Amino acid sequence: MTQSSHTSPTLHTSSRGLFGHMVRTLLWVFMVGCIYIGIVTYFVLRQSQHDHTQTSDAAIVLGAAVWGGNPSPVLKARLDHALALYQQKTVATIIVTGGTGNGDNMSEAAAGASYLEERGVPATAILLETNGRSTYQSLKAAATLAQASNIQSVLLVSDPFHMLRSLKMAGDLGFTAYPSPTTTSPISRRPLEEWLYMIREAVAYTSYLFTNQ
């Protein structure tokens, strides 16, 4: 005669309690994460609204996509801003940054340098960082170029949403850096897209705090 097996009601209750505790913990972690990213996004927004352009040794143009060997509209807006800084004698040197993206045959820096030279900036006033595949890599390599050229103070030229993270990185790399965001980026004319970039920047900024990259 066989005995029927059964699961203890106490075990069922314990399993449900453990599962409920895990769900509550995950929800709590998710809520705290959302609140944190929301706070950092606010700081990204607040920094994006500040332009501290002032006379400096150089402008660092942070890279963006290249389309068919030419600067994309986003990169063009950054280059035009740096060009104006040079023409106004706010800076004497422009450092263009950015490596070669997938499928491209020209680096972001090379496309930027060509664009500036076509508009009257002498090659002697342009420094190229051609290997960076991220903001940190580009700024780290730019720091080496700057040190060799006795450049200490720089204006960071990029989209407004990019300023908080770029300034943090530049400061950590030893630059005296000031934000000089472009006001003509096509992203700035698309509010929803700009907000998505700000949220992404909040995540990227948080990642940098933990990885230093």
How would you portray this structure in words?
The protein has 213 residues and is of the alpha/beta class. The protein is built from six helices and seven strands, in the order αβββαβαβαβαβα. The chain has helices at 9-48, 73-87, 108-118, 135-148, 163-172, 191-211, and strands at 58-61, 66-67, 70-71, 93-97, 126-129, 153-157, 176-179. It has a five-stranded parallel sheet, with helices on both faces. Strands 2-3 form a two-stranded antiparallel ribbon. α1 (9-48) crosses α6. The longest helix is centred in the N-terminal third of the chain and has 40 residues, at 9-48. It is elongated and about 80 Å long. Mean pLDDT is 91; it is low at 1-5.
Give me the strand/helix succession.
HEEEHEHEHEHEH
Distance between the termini: 68 Å
Strand order of the largest sheet: 5-4-1-6-7
**What would you call the structural class?**
alpha/beta
Task: Indicate the overall shape.
Answer: elongated
